[in-house]
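User: My advisor, Dr. K., asked me to get a structural model of this assembly before our group meeting. I'm new to this, so sorry if the format is off. These are the inputs:
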Amino acid sequence: MTFDQVIPDFGEWLFGGFLLSLIRVALLIAGGVLLGFLVASARRGPVEGFYSVAKVISSSVNDLVNWSLFRTMAMAKLAVQESIRRLVLIVFVVFVVILLFAGWYLDTQSENPAKLYLSFVLTASNFLVVLLALFLSAFSLPADIKNRTIYTVVTKPVRAWEIVLGRILGFVTVGTMLLVPMGIVSYFFVQRGLSHDHAAEQVAAVSAGDVTHEGETTFDSHHRHTFKMYDDGSGETDVVRSHWHRVTKVGEGDSATFEFGSPVGLLQARVPIFGKLRFKDRAGADASEGINVGSEWAYRTYIEGGSLAEAIWTFKDITPERYPDGLDLELNLRVFRTYKGDMEKGILGSIVLRNPNSSAKVRRSEAIIFNAKEFVLDKQTIPRNIRVVDNEDGRVRDGNLFDLVDDEGRLEVSIQCGERSQYYGMAENDVYILDREAPFVMNLAKGYAGIWLQMVMVTSFGVMFSTFLSGAVAMMATLSSFVVGYFSNFILEVATGAKEGGGPAESFLRIITQQNVQVDLEIGKTPTSIIQGIDLVAMMLMQVMTGMLPDYANFMGTTEYVANGYNIDGTLMSMQLITAFCYVLVASLIAYYLLKTREIAA
Amino acid sequence: MIQNASFQRKVLYLGLIALLLIPLYVIGHPATGDPTQLNSSPGGQLAQLRSEYDLAPTELGEIDPASESMKLATLGMKGIAANVLLMKANHYKKTEEWEKLIGAVNQLVKLQPHFVKVWEYQSHNLTYNVSVEHDDFKFRYAWVKKGIEFLTKGVRYNRHEPKMPWTVGWYTGQKIGRADEHKQFRRLFGDDKDFHLVLSQYVQIDTEARGADQRPDNWLTSRLWYESAYDIVETRDVPIRGKAPHIFYSDGPKALMNYAHTIETEGVLDEKAQYAWRRAGESWDIYGNRVVPTSWGIRIRLNDEEAARAEAERLSDELDKLVPGLREKVKQDKIDALPELERAALAKSWEEITGELEGTRKFQAEHKTLVSNLDVAEASPSEVRARAFRLAKQASDKETEATRIAAYRNNVNFNYWKARCAVEQLPKTVNARRHVFEAKRLREEADLDAARKEFELAWQDWGAIFQEHRELVNELTEDDLLEDIQEYIKLLGQLDEELPPNFALQEILSKYMDASAPNTEAPPAEADPAKAEAADAPDATPATPKEEPAP
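Assistant: The format is fine. Below is the predicted structure of the whole assembly, which you can bring to the meeting.
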């Protein structure tokens, strides 16, 4: 399982990038006002121009002060009624039809069916709701203006601000009315899709320690398990396709039967506590990262086995109150072998817990030996009572896990690969402390909240464009803003030259002339300069555009948390909420001014 | 008036649409009714062309409603959708998101279910490239299995394409049987009853592929897949694309040989091994009798080389009888016509030749004085010349045929495998291999003296085999026998002894190895056909998880 989402620190995000963006927005607004002044001055002279702008601003303040919730709600109600008349609820029917035929397209033999099912329902809901928001918001106002039904509204004492907010609120209400049942249906769809049962197929009595029986289950839902029964009558299966079952023995002797519980481990919302990762190289010196073993994807780097190389994670806030029974470490390491060795055995490694305080009495724990497992979550439970190495006499003695935690609640977890010329690969998120299991339903709801925020933003943009564009053009503009926002990372890479092949003009030329992106353009010096000049302007515009639009891919990324079985962090939710709120506010403001300056009923 | 104009326009548009539909219907309407009945319709021109070239989806293979609805949903942008999915699949592979990768790949083949290359490329990706990314051999096996299962679905959608079952056969045989983890893979395959159930939907794995231990064997299963590929070619008369026919047909019998060889390496050294080799030999003989097309446009049978050569010789003799002594006379005339220095060089034996220049002269002289049957016919008296030319032509044709068959035989190492099958099924050979197997086991247990005794017993048997089958000295020695001899030499080194001067396989050793160097490496890979075959295969699993190119 790969989970490379990194949540920045909230403070850094707020005071670094976010506030900077707000300042940019404020500057843009100021620029807008200045532009308005210049246009008005050009038409009516500077004094008249100034008065025009001042009048618009003062009436805006007036509109804001006299804003009526009642009138806004009335406008929202109209928007809801209009949407229902336009049979938008058909979207829900489409969603149900998609779910009905989902089995045709979903790989029922997947190793991680929960991830697949959840990704599917969340993606389907996301795109359907965004499309709905797009169509509803972009066509409504232009249709009203075209049919002149808007006259019945603007001739009433309704302010432009209330029309804009009312529309957004109404369409968001409709979207919410669809999204909530979609979420509920999705939950039951996933539950039903993953639910399965087994029966015992082959059972043999054994006497190995506390194991009394070993057996195999029937082949159901494209898999089977092996299972073990213990002398206390309980039992469990092995983990296959990311889940296992509890087994209970019913009856005694030959008439005994085995009952298998529902799958465990499929729908999870783990709450991970991530640490900060640092490396030491083969000589034991600090290194900025591990070794690249030739992977195209440089997300993970590797440490060499049988050397002093190690990967050290520093975790914060480790307290006995928080972890009274010890720590559950979850590892998701990679293995790279330079020779095959014994293929039936994994590569051995060791975990050592260390106190970051170099003058502590107990500096480290005894090494915990483990076998690296790839592509499964390897849970290592570190009990509270562990063997530690005394710093004074170097002896190994019984100790406490929290002896290794410094005064600031920090604990270091060091991992080394034990076998020479073999390597372990890791990234920062590959080792974490499992804090607890959060309720899955809540996590799913948070995932849907991420979708909801996208819908709200798309609606705001749709309403904004519809205040000055015709329906079809407004829809295209909203769609473009969504597509550009969704691919903003890619566009930014193109705009900054990080992607090979040049800007849009150069890329187009390369496509039609079939020129490789790695070689210089073969069209002569002057034409190349012209093309690159055009690109320079286009790339600047692209940079500005990506900076102004919401990064929808980031919002969609929250659904990945749900699909991968990780709890969506509160920090992430807050960031997204604030971001979405700001975009809605800015879009509403622009929409308000555009609608206000448009002479609808003139 | 305006309303009237608008209405008229609408009627005009509708009329134009209806008009355009007529030619569309004429060329595109599907066939109806039973084609053998009089009242049936062969359909429009497009339908007829589709039927003629087997391009209709129903002709190509199974139709999947999911696939059809997905194609429909792309609204004519199937190519773009496929491209996006391919890019996504590559991305997921890079970021090690295997579930998403297989999801994207499954969607991709739903869009293009009759595009054989997509099935081949992606199944190779799963079987070879993804499996090798996993450290745990059980996971590796699971991905090999996924790749094979994936390709079997492709077989259903492309029932006219022999390359599909052939590739399944190749993966089942070569990937499971030759990967570095082949021992583990073969064990897992034998125990994998759920996979057997899947495969039994296509081939008779339960009855035809049970190995020495009565569990399904990967090599025998692969043979069944090859056979089903051969069936497609034979029964549907479709071309074999991307593979020379004589190589295509050789893999079935070779799977049987690989099976026989593998069970021997696993310690099955009794009548089961003998039977396996006998069966392989029979299969190779059937293969030799198969008529295969060649790049010269003629059809040959690999077993016919000897007969063609004998016939060429007979015709040549007949020519010589027709014009007695003429061949010698022509040769002498050619010698007489040579320049002095070349004649002198020709008169010498190769041992007497000194210097490169003289060697070149001798070589040129030999070449110039070669007497072909046509030379003899040309020099023959006029009263028999017509017959002489006919005989010469026939002999020449037969020689050409034999030469061509020999070239094709050489491609598949025909003689080697034929000889090997003949010898391996002898009780003495199986006995010799059992001694070697025991010797290796004892050596691993550090019982060096007992190991040496077993080796010596093996060499006695091998010596006798080579005495009885002299022809094998040039053929069979390319086997892993050389590695066994090397291991014996190492064992002697451990005992501070040297290879005895009367070593039974000295002749073999002198021919293929430098016996004086105990640490001599095994002969180069191309000298060992089994290894050469593995090297040719897409399954050259590297020691490190290095990505392999798709076929």
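One thing worth pointing out at the meeting: The interface with chain B takes residues 2, 4, 101, 104-107, 109-112, 115-116, 119, 219, 224, 294, 296-297, 299, 334-340, 343-344, 346-347, 372-375 of chain A (CB under 8 Å).

User: Perfect, thanks a lot.
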